Amino acid sequence: MREITVPVGDRSYPILLGAGILDSLGTHVRAAGIRGSVALVQDQAVAGLFGRRVRRSLEAAGYRVSPVAVPSGEASKSLAQLGALYEAFAGARLDRGSAVVALGGGVIGDLAGFAAATYLRGIDFVQVPTTLLAQVDASVGGKTGIDLPTGKNLVGAFHQPRLVLIDLETLDTMPEAEYRAGFAEVIKYGVIEDACLFDFLESNRDALLGHYPDALLHVVARSCEIKARVVGQDERESGLRAILNYGHTVGHAVETAAGYGEYLHGEAVAIGMAAAGRLSSRLGWLSDEDAERIERLLAGYGLPVRLREPLPEEGLVRAMRLDKKARDGELRFILARAIGRVESAPVLEPDARAALRKIQAAGT
Ligand SMILES: NC(=O)c1ccc[n+]([C@@H]2O[C@H](COP(=O)([O-])OP(=O)(O)OC[C@H]3O[C@@H](n4cnc5c(N)ncnc54)[C@H](O)[C@@H]3O)[C@@H](O)[C@H]2O)c1
Ligand SMILES: [Zn+2]
């Protein structure tokens, strides 16, 4: 088992990683100092796969466990589901010493984490992420929240978990497309921080797509280390944390312009990384060879680097202007200086438009 610390002062916490470690959850929750009862908030589909093991492990460690199932899918990051969780917590008589354990992907982590952040003004929280995206990204860093009909993640709080337990074996049941989409974020860590990770992803693609535990442990652990370091330096996203948004300016614009659900998040981010790479090379920051190398790696993991259907440029530009990095109408991008090094920079609209043309569907 590997352990990585997320260094956030007196709220620092461990990420535990391994293959087949789900049954040890109860022991680790106990070791994290949680003494009260536990609400086990679980994705409905994931509950059927791992819910019983997780519950047994918690009960064996002496916890009173109240399971709460949440329907799978982004639609559950809603005020209605949040309200249902508060009612379930009250029904289970959670108190200030109780904890919420989130079992599922990023949807469950964000929703259950926000419920934990706000119930009784904040109770303890444990993440057991079961998707690749949640293991390398959503479960680490303490961002929690829900969506409103007008937009994603509009309501939220920073609430660090007490513990993150990552069992790589849970990924074995993931749908293939979702699994591959998770690699967009892993590739992102290579581009922003770690050329060695990037090389490893190039050399070990078959092992990783084949779920080899050693290869997977290496890239998930490395991703968590990078995110932990960045979060440790900039917990509230006032500076450095923005580099984690590499590929996300255009990625979010693609998700918005195409309509949510048209692209998986990782697929949109892959297209966004292709655009950011092209923009970086257009501005003379990155060589054309490296921009192409990034696209080849993404494509090697079955990720798109061009839009599947053309999208109107105006819609994409409008969505980019709403990006949280844009200030006073000025577009800002995270751009690559090299594979393994990025910086935030203002970008002129004609340059951004030129990059958008590079990612239009083939033949347009
Ligand atoms: N808090 C953060 O820092 C942060 C960062 C990135 C993304 N997010 C959020 O994460 C969410 C996306 O997370 P996600 O991609 O994990 O989606 P998700 O939680 O919707 O999970 C994807 C699908 O996989 C299923 N699933 C989960 N684990 C499984 C398993 N082991 N086997 C089989 N099926 C499984 C789920 O039922 C669901 O249908 C978004 O809401 C996004 O905003 C948050
Ligand atoms: Zn992302």
- What is the arithmetic mean of pLDDT? 95
The overall strand count is: 11
- Largest sheet: spatial strand order: 1-2-9-6-5-3-4
What characterizes the major β-sheet?
Answer: 7 strands, mixed
Low-confidence stretches: none
Q: Percent of residues in helical segments?
A: 40-55%
Distance between the termini: 49 Å
User: Multimeric state of these chains?
Assistant: single chain
Proportion of strand residues: 15-25%
SS element count, helices: 14
Q: Which class best fits the helix and strand makeup?
A: alpha/beta
Strand/helix succession: EEHEHEHEHEHEEEHHHHHHHHEEH
Overall outline: globular
Descriptive overview:
There is one protein chain. The protein has 364 residues and is of the alpha/beta class. The chain has 14 helices and 11 strands. A 7-stranded mixed beta sheet has the order 1-2-9-6-5-3-4, with helices on both faces. Strand 7 and strand 8 form a beta hairpin. The longest helix has 21 residues. 50% of the residues are buried. The mean pLDDT is 95. Nicotinamide-adenine-dinucleotide (NAD) binds next to helix 2, helix 4 and helix 5.
